[in-house]
Design brief:
Number of strands: 22
Shape: globular
Number of helices: 23
Helix content: 25-40%
Structural class: alpha+beta
Distance between the termini: 25 Å
């Protein structure tokens, strides 16, 4: 096609255009060289970013080398109480006492056979192993409770392990170390705990409220220690200024550095404690524990936080003339919380020194007036009402002069502190009681299962009833038999569908109506001996019960993701709508008349139970989001760093440069 003369360029214009194009090409070449150099630097930046994620999704400790020293003492007789308090308790430094527990009678005598023979009928608190199939600790006496005899018999095959108060009859076999044999280190022992497992257990990263000396009697433990000033870096968030114990939400088996980037800044140390060794763990010191060996046994002596501001402190004069000696626990009657081996335990109860520290911190160390203690809608110990608060004041004001001083606090008797602790914290820790199973099993689901089973079978003997209760309801044989006896009031050896008409089933199931809204709430243990309110971790527990999942497979903070919530709801719906299948019954059996009008009222059991659990899980999720989301909002932004932005910009400009060169 011929170009119109009007559109033809003159030779001068063409020359000028060619010069401009050559200039653009030259500038483009220079720019490309510069940008390629920047891209090379960006690659180095990218490598550096990757280096910052060293240890990502690896166990805790892979993110940086150990740098936190842990002292060791080879002769337990060489450390005096004054030195122990000054060098370790006040400074909150851990220390290992090599071979100290070899002086204990327990170290020599606590074989499985001897424990069963000498202490077999004593009762222990148990928890499920994190890798256990059922996610529930079921012992001879129901959920959360076993006898010593049964536990040691099943030690190597069970999914359970013991985290219990040490029964008083076993006190003579365990001793206080010489560094605790006088003064308030001896008289302010709060609690003695027993740990037993078949090995292979592990805790989460946590801190404990009390100071503790943990003595290994058999087996091996690795203790990973983190200084107490690393609260922000381990993402621990207390619900109050006086939440002295608690968990880090970080999954220490697989650290997500994108979600928890500050973990790589945490200094840590590790020490291995063998049978016969003891270790001092300062209160508030973060730690993780991993146990090994087919039989792993340890005893932990918990004592008061004497070092806290405004606490009782330590009077060196009380140890004048100190003679180094091991003291059997049976010779220390001052131990605040003691468990006789049967009945209610008192794990986790407060002590006088801690409560005193709380009160005098509020007054900045000044004497506390009665009007101050009782003032405000929430009194100083958050007691439920003024009447209860006045009872507490009567215990604290030992000279009845209307003012509480440090001298008053020191004069409160141990019985007084026990009573005050119960007044200040009146709730029931269900895992300490025989009623743990009532708090764990869902009343409405159990009711649905038993109703449908009774309609179909018409009558059940004890064996069939207990099988339904355990295999379908998820309960223990011990509680299944108790429930059967409550229904079989005429002792005929069978339960019939008539219990649906006379209200006997409803009455027998009333104890299972326990909810977290009840006084003290529904508690369960996290695997570390720390009792946490069910609101924090119940979502994980629900999923574990229904799906058989390991708790570590669920969000570390206990909340439900959308997908996990959907899976849980689907599982509950399937369980509620297919009870017949779980019972091994024919669908037609469920349509049989039970002889009354009760069945008509229960036609919508499945829909009702679905609604109950949908509401329940939605509530848990809402609470989890409200409590747990806030600390991590800022950290979510860390995933896109300035280096990431620079890297992406340079790569984009480099690509544009290549395109310009191709066009020119």
């Amino acid at each position: 096609m011929k170009i119109s003369p009007d559109l033809e360029f003159s030779s001068d214009v063409q020359v000028r255009m060619q010069s401009i194009l050559r200039g653009v090409l030259l500038i483009s070449e220079v720019a490309c060289i510069a940008f390629q150099s920047l891209a090379a630097d960006a690659t180095n930046v990218e490598s550096q970013v990757a280096g910052d994620l060293a240890g990502h999704l690896q166990p805790f400790g892979f993110q940086r080398p150990a740098s936190y020293p842990i002292d060791e003492i080879s002769d337990a007789f060489s450390l005096s109480p004054v030195e122990f308090y000054s060098n370790y308790v006040v400074t909150r430094r851990p220390v290992v006492f090599r071979g100290a527990a070899k002086h204990f009678k327990a170290y020599k005598d606590w074989t499985k056979a001897a424990l069963a023979a000498n202490y077999g009928k004593l009762e222990l608190r148990i928890e499920p192993r994190k890798d256990g199939a059922s996610g529930r600790a079921v012992g001879e006496l129901g959920m959360g409770r076993d006898t010593m005899e049964n536990f040691v018999k099943t030690l190597e095959t069970s999914d359970n392990y013991v985290v219990s108060e040490l029964p008083v009859p076993m006190y003579g076999d365990v001793e206080l170390l010489p560094c605790m044999s006088c003064g308030r280190l001896r008289t302010m022992v709060s609690e003695i705990n027993l740990w037993m497992s078949g090995g292979g257990t592990r805790s989460r990263l946590h801190r404990d409220a009390f100071n503790a000396i943990n003595c290994q009697l058999n087996g091996t433990k690795d203790w990973i220690m983190v200084p107490p000033n690393q609260t922000d870096n381990v993402y621990f968030k207390a619900s109050s200024d006086w939440e002295l114990g608690g968990l880090s939400p970080v999954n220490t088996d697989s650290i997500d550095l994108k979600k928890y980037p500050r973990i790589r800044n945490v200094p840590w140390g590790i020490t291995t404690v063998e049978g016969g060794d003891c270790i001092f763990i300062p209160g508030g010191h973060y730690h993780q524990v991993r146990s090994y060996g087919f039989t792993n046994i340890a005893v932990s002596v918990l004592f008061s936080r004497l070092e806290m501001p405004h606490a009782f402190g330590f009077d060196e004069a009380e140890c004048d003339g100190w003679t180094p000696e091991f003291v059997p626990l049976s010779a220390v009657p001052e131990i605040l919380w003691q468990y006789p081996g049967h009945g209610m335990m008192t794990m986790g109860n407060a002590d006088g020194s801690t409560l005193t520290a709380i009160l005098f911190t509020e007054t900045k160390g000044k004497p506390l007036k009665k009007s101050q203690f009782l003032s405000g809608e929430d009194n100083m110990l958050d007691m439920p009402d003024k009447k209860t608060a006045r009872k507490a004041w009567a215990i604290l004001d030992t000279d009845n002069d209307g003012v509480m001083t440090r001298s008053d606090a020191l004069n409160v008797s141990r019985d007084g502190w026990r009573l005050l602790s119960r007044i200040a914290e009146p709730f029931i820790v269900y895992s300490n009681s025989y009623d743990y199973e009532y708090a764990i099993l869902e009343h409405d689901m159990l009711r649905t299962i038993l109703r449908r089973a009774l309609r179909s079978h018409k009558q059940m003997d004890e064996g069939t009833f207990v099988k339904v209760y355990t295999d379908v309801g998820g309960g223990s044989e011990y509680f299944g038999k108790r429930l059967f006896r409550a229904l079989d009031t005429e002792q005929r050896g069978r339960v019939t569908a008539t219990v649906l008409q006379n209200g006997r089933l409803e009455t027998a199931l009333e104890p299972y109506l326990v909810t977290e809204e009840d006084d003290g709430g529904n508690h369960f243990a996290d695997g570390d001996g720390e009792d946490d309110h069910v609101g924090e971790m119940e979502a994980a527990d629900l999923l574990r019960r229904v799906l058989g999942q390991d708790q570590t497979d669920i969000e570390e903070d206990g909340s439900l993701t959308d997908s996990e919530r959907d899976v849980a709801l689907d599982a509950y719906q399937e369980r509620a709508s297919n009870v017949n299948t779980l019972l091994g019954l024919d669908d037609d059996d469920d349509n049989d008349d039970d002889g009354g009008d009760e069945g008509d009222e229960e036609e919508d059991d499945e829909e009702n139970i679905n609604a109950v659990y949908r509401s329940h899980l939605e509530k848990i999720r809402a609470e989890s989001e409200e409590v747990d989301a806030a600390p991590y909002v800022q950290e979510e932004l860390v995933e896109v760093t300035p280096q990431d932005r620079a890297l992406n910009s340079i790569k984009g400009i480099n690509l544009l440069c290549v395109c310009v060169r191709a066009c020119v």
